[in-house]
Design goal:
Helix content: 25-40%
Number of domains: 1
Bound molecules: zinc ion
Strand content: 25-35%
Radius of gyration: 21 Å
Number of strands: 11
Largest sheet: 5 strands, antiparallel
Structural class: alpha+beta
């Protein structure tokens, strides 16, 4: 199976922390506490894969309310090749063939959009680096020490963890390819929730950490099937700017049409 390149959307903006952020690096000791992930220059960043996971889980929480959409939410045995061995065998067989198209009937809508073990994601998010000037400040918070033998909180043990302060900003860039109307709707929902500040990222979210707001500055489109759009891109490398609201409204319009069909 192969898929022609039909469209590419580039969405750029900023993530502004409304609360402190802790994305653990896995590096921790009782002397220094649990440290956050840092780039080669010692500055904090948000791994693109973490951010993608957050959009995905946001969409998975809302999909049950959308007529005609489904998600396996990675639950074993659900009706999607990612978690269903029979369907996965069918999918692998289909991928070997040389017909064109997407294995729509074998994957749920979120695996089709965000990828699964057998199919690449249509959504790529670059690592989100801190905007300059970065003031170079990390804060420490008190956590509860974990007893490594019993994996329960150790009595009286205090354990510090490092956080990136509230108001820190990160650069956001998401590139999506071959989105159909349904994909646009799902992504719009994820982006809207983030714009509204209802989503958090990183560790210790139950303690109020990781709240952020997504600010979208620019949405650009390259439509490979539109000759003028493609020629402009070849000549200038520039993509056509589109309005975010149009991107979102196309998705909503699609949901209305789809709802109408089901009714
Ligand atoms: Zn799935």
């Amino acid at each position: 199976m192969f898929e022609r390149l039909r469209n590419r959307y580039v969405i750029k903006g900023k993530v502004v922390m409304d609360a402190a952020l802790h994305i653990g690096s896995g590096e921790e000791s009782f002397e220094r506490g649990a440290l956050v992930v840092k780039d080669a220059y010692g500055k904090p960043y948000i791994p693109g894969s973490s951010f993608k996971g957050i959009i995905r889980s946001t969409v998975e929480r809302i999909i049950p309310y959308l007529d005609g959409f489904k998600t396996c939410a990675l639950i074993k045995g659900a009706d999607c090749a990612t978690v269903n061995e029979v369907k996965m065998d069918q999918l692998k067989e289909r991928l070997k063939g040389d017909e064109e198209g997407e294995p729509i009937d074998l994957l749920c809508d979120t695996c089709k959009l965000f990828g699964s073990t057998a199919v690449a994601s249509k959504v790529k998010i670059s690592d989100l680096y801190v905007t300059e000037p970065w003031i170079g400040l990390f804060e420490k918070r008190d956590g509860v020490g974990i007893d490594r033998d019993t994996e329960t909180s150790a009595e009286g043990a205090k354990f510090e963890y490092e956080v990136v302060p509230s108001q820190t900003e990160f650069n956001f860039e998401m590139v999506c390819e071959n989105l159909d109307e349904g994909d646009k709707l799902l992504l719009s929902i994820g982006l809207r929730e983030m714009q509204s500040g209802y989503v958090s990222i990183g560790g210790n979210r139950s303690r109020g950490l990781g709240a952020f707001q997504l600010i979208i500055d620019e949405v650009a489109l390259l439509n490979f099937e539109d000759r003028k759009s493609f020629m402009d891109y070849l000549a200038s490398q520039k993509l056509e700017k589109i309005e975010l609201v149009d991107f979102i409204e196309e998705g909503i319009k699609y949901l209305q049409q789809r709802g109408g069909q089901n009714a």
